[in-house]
Design a protein that fits this description.
The structure is a single chain. The chain has about 170 residues and is of the alpha/beta class. The chain has a single domain, classed as Rossmann fold, CATH 3.40.50. It contains 6 helices and 5 strands; from the N terminus they run βαβαβααβαβα. α1 packs parallel to α6. It comes from Limosilactobacillus mucosae DSM 13345. GO terms for molecular function: oxidoreductase activity.
Length: about 170
């Protein structure tokens, strides 16, 4: 399976990134091919519109990421939860997906990996559910690390992420 993992945290080290890397290890152990795009440390520029309110193509990095998204069988979205939503770095990725909306309507799967200083992930899950539903993607799982803001207290979440990755085929 071709898996694209999009990291959306600007933190270093980041809980959501650590968990995503554990998921990747599991996925690779199950013989999947994984590509990583780090939007947290290499953020995309905001979308731009023309005079007729159509999305303009992004730069070469954005277009390459969109090509990878179209080619992937499964996409992992890893983001910290900021003020009850995804990071702005991840939001820029989501916004650019509109450039390839028709191509992204495909038989894909998606996983959400997120961290937050609380346990209320409902707003974030609703946001991603709406995106996945719009695109017709199957929700393939989640790792939601609540009350986690530092990598020093991750408890059982890395094992959950690894096992989810290992179950992918």
């Amino acid at each position: 399976m071709e898996i694209l993992t999009i990291l959306g945290s600007p933190h270093d080290p980041a809980v959501s990134t650590i968990l995503a890397h554990q998921l990747i290890k599991g996925a690779q152990a199950a013989a999947n091919h994984v590509t990583i795009f780090d939007a947290g440390h290499h953020p995309l520029a905001p979308v731009k519109m023309d005079a007729d309110n159509h999305l303009l193509p992004g730069d070469a990095v954005t277009e390459r990421l969109l090509d990878q998204m179209v080619a992937a069988d499964l996409i992992v979205f890893a983001t910290p939860m900021f003020y009850y939503g995804m990071s702005s770095q991840m939001k820029a990725v989501i916004d650019h997906m509109g450039e390839r909306d028709e191509q992204l309507h495909d038989d894909k799967q998606a996983i959400l990996v997120a961290s937050a200083p609380h346990n209320d992930f409902d707003p974030l899950k609703s946001e991603f559910k709406a995106i996945f539903d719009h695109l017709g993607w199957k929700f393939a799982g989640q790792v939601l690390a609540g009350k986690e803001t530092t990598p020093h207290h991750l408890r059982f979440y890395p094992d959950l992420a690894y096992e989810l990755g290992k179950s992918l085929n």
